[in-house]
């Protein structure tokens, strides 16, 4: 299990692990300096406990994600600006308003038939669970594009698959080649076709407002990059959910050095706490508490 997903290089990780195994081992160089900068070793080159190290790295990763969210807001502000430009009837080649859902479906199907390359979709369902546009993936042209090699990816809100019907639908589509992942990040409806054309609701609060077709290369590239980043951070459908108690146990596992203090923090007996830990480690395929904390974070359980 590597710490690279939490921001350490192979050299930095190897040094930290060696200092854990051999207290007082001689160490010097840029890797040691970086570990000190991160707070993973102290001024005497003694490593902090693994639980503390994981917590430090997780907090840094969470901060990186928080810094990316304003980037998303900027995108939607730009979409709003383009929408206002359209409503003002100023000529533009970057955006077009599509009011008829059938027209929207036909255009996307035509693009996929001409060149079945990529179809990237963020499913930002409304609170009622209704889509802001018809699901063109249920129709024959889309299925033919999949058969012709279309790389189709769909992002869902993690809470959406808690509903049995959404879970079953996502798994069925995934099995047919329309790959699905879930995320806890904020979602807005958007579709990008072949990395060249994007579609977004003209008004996310009004399903009847129609759709914006966006061809501005810079904006489409930005939306594509955001999707790729979210997809990389998202989680597979096969990943097992955890109960609130199990999530508390995982947090305690990462924050406390002993079972006794961890169990007290979540108001469980040591025996019950250890039973939860053993079950979670088995489900994660972890060989140590340290590895369990890392895997749980990677899967979005923490």
From TrEMBL:
Residues 239-296 form the HTH luxR-type domain. SUPFAM superfamilies: C-terminal effector domain of the bipartite response regulators. InterPro entries: Sig_transdc_resp-reg_C-effctor, Tscrpt_reg_LuxR_C, WalR-like, WH-like_DNA-bd_sf. The keyword DNA-binding applies. Keywords: DNA-binding, Transcription, Transcription regulation. This is HTH luxR-type domain-containing protein. It comes from Streptomyces coeruleoprunus.
């Amino acid at each position: 299990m590597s710490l690279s997903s939490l921001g350490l290089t192979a050299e930095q990780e190897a040094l930290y692990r060696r200092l854990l195994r051999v207290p007082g081992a001689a160490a010097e160089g840029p890797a040691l300096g970086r570990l000190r900068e991160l707070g993973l070793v102290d001024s005497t080159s003694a490593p902090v406990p693994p639980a503390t190290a994981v917590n430090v790295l997780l907090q840094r990763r969470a901060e990186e994600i928080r810094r990316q969210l304003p980037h998303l807001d900027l995108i939607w502000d730009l979409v709003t600006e383009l929408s206002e430009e359209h409503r003002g009837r100023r000529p533009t080649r970057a955006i077009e308003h599509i009011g008829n859902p059938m027209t929207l479906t036909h255009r996307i199907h035509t693009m996929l038939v001409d060149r079945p390359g990529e179809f990237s979709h963020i499913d930002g369902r409304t609170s009622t669970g209704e889509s802001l546009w018809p699901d063109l993936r249920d129709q024959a042209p889309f299925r033919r594009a999949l058969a012709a090699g279309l790389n189709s990816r769909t992002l869902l809100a993690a809470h959406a698959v808690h509903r049995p019907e959404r879970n079953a639908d996502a798994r069925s589509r995934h099995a047919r080649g329309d790959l699905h992942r879930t995320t806890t990040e904020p979602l807005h409806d958007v579709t990008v076709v072949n990395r060249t054309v994007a579609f977004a609701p003209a008004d996310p609060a009004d399903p009847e407002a129609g759709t914006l077709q966006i061809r501005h290369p810079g904006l489409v590239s930005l939306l594509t990059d955001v999707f790729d980043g979210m997809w990389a951070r998202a989680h597979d459908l096969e990943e097992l959910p955890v109960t609130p108690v199990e999530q508390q146990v995982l947090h305690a596992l990462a924050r406390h050095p002993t079972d006794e203090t961890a169990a007290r923090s979540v108001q469980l007996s040591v025996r019950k706490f250890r039973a939860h830990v053993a079950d979670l480690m088995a489900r994660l395929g972890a060989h140590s508490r340290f590895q369990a904390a890392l895997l749980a974070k990677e899967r979005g359980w923490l």
